Amino acid sequence: MTRWSWAVVGIAVAYFVLAGAVLAPYPGMENDEALFAGGIYAPEQMEWYVRLFGKSISVMIMSYIGSLKAWLWAPVFAVWRPSALSLRLPAILAGAGAILLLAALLNRVARRRAAVIGGALLAADSVFLTTIAFDWGPVALQQLLLAAALYMLVRFHQGRRERDLALGFLFLGLALWNKAVFVWILSGLAVAALALLWREIRQLASARRVLIAGGAFVIGALPLLVYNVHRGGATFTGKKYSLADAPRKVHVLLSTMKGDAMAGFLASAGATAADEAKGENLVERGSLWLSDRNGRRIAGLALYALPLALLAGLWSRRTRRAVLFFLIAFLVAWVEMLATVEAGGSAHHTITLWLPLYAILGAGLAAISCQPRLGVALTALAASAVFASNVLVTNEYLARLVRFGPEPLWTDAVFPLAGYIERAGVPQVYVADWGMGDTLRLLFHGKIQLGNAIEPFTRTAMDDEERRHVHERLARTDSLFVAYAEGRKVFPQAEQLVFRLAGEAGYRREMPTVIHDRRGRPVFEAYRFVKAEPPL
Predict the structure, then answer these.
(1) Smaller CB count within 10 Å for the chain: N or C?
(2) Are 417 and 440 in contact (CB under 8 A)?
(3) Beta carbons within 10 angstroms of residue 369's beta carbon
């Protein structure tokens, strides 16, 4: 690639980082986004941890999510207190790295124009940006590790350096440990390689190289492998397969490609005009103005450009093999996603297929530019339209966050809630509903004790053991209970069970302190239980 080509990609990546930094402070921390904090501050409460040099180290957050993110973010939080920016900026930078690596990869397999187009368009993709910036999936490290692995393996194929082979398979192993659903895209890549590159694989294969590749992969995935040996394959057992939910998953995929997958989840899907807020600064007012000029629509064009790019990429001899490789990898991974029960029904699953899709989009549009006469003009028009439409979609998300605030799971009231708890000076907090525990653990970086008021929140009745535990929690005079305000409760029966037992045990709830969001809406309640005075 020329310096001008890298400059175009660099500008697109700079936009990606800037847009992510602008969006980052608006939503509060969603509980799953903060889930990995337990791997830093409460490793003993995670799925699996080990003792090393007298210290507990988390290895698996859940049966299919490793502690890699906890290990990488821990040094960040050691020097930069957990906040919206310290949590999200490293993820945004990981996404930027994935974009640069995709451009470098396309430059090697489909030449310069494909690299520029694919990298720039991926940088503008609004769902790619938001799923990485608000990394509740988590997907940021998945995208970076996948892009790095593909780039290093292509370098090995072209340069025969065994160091590149080792690094490529190490990144694949790390990605599998980071989140085991990486097996979808990993199997897609394997099928594509066997279908299209079998001759090259046979020529390059040797006992030494097989050992290098296998050893590097095992090193990367070792924590996951050891965990499954200890737990009898817990990561992969109990999975069910069905196509009953396929229509909804197809809709989610199309919605992700169109760009509106985050409407109604992160930002408002459309609220009443009477509930609108005004912009408080130049950026917010500019975003609202542009949103109004665009009709407040979410309408990205990548969905419509992809079929054209696919046909052109398969037609051109220059790009056919690369496009076929990424198409096979995408289809195999998506079929697995489609068939797996309780998977593939959300944008954070479908977005893991975005690198192959944008590789196809970049290579295909580049193939159009090679056609005589109008090829370059048509490619420039299509790429510019897709880029601009994706920028407008991202702006619409910002405008809706400004106008209506985030959706309930992303409420910004978690920040004043943390401030209230800090001022209260209590060492113990009990949460009475789902969706705030991991967030508070992260914001307090492990400096207060956090527990559940009742376990699990899905209970409809209490056994003797849980009644005893709730009694112990009520008896702590230095504790604070936190729940959602009326109309926002997720598992209201859990809190009602605590109230009922408290009344039976002679406790009464003090008047709760109501915590409001930026818009002044009641979101949380914080309260204490005190022993009721006996009647005269």
Answers:
(1) C
(2) yes
(3) 20
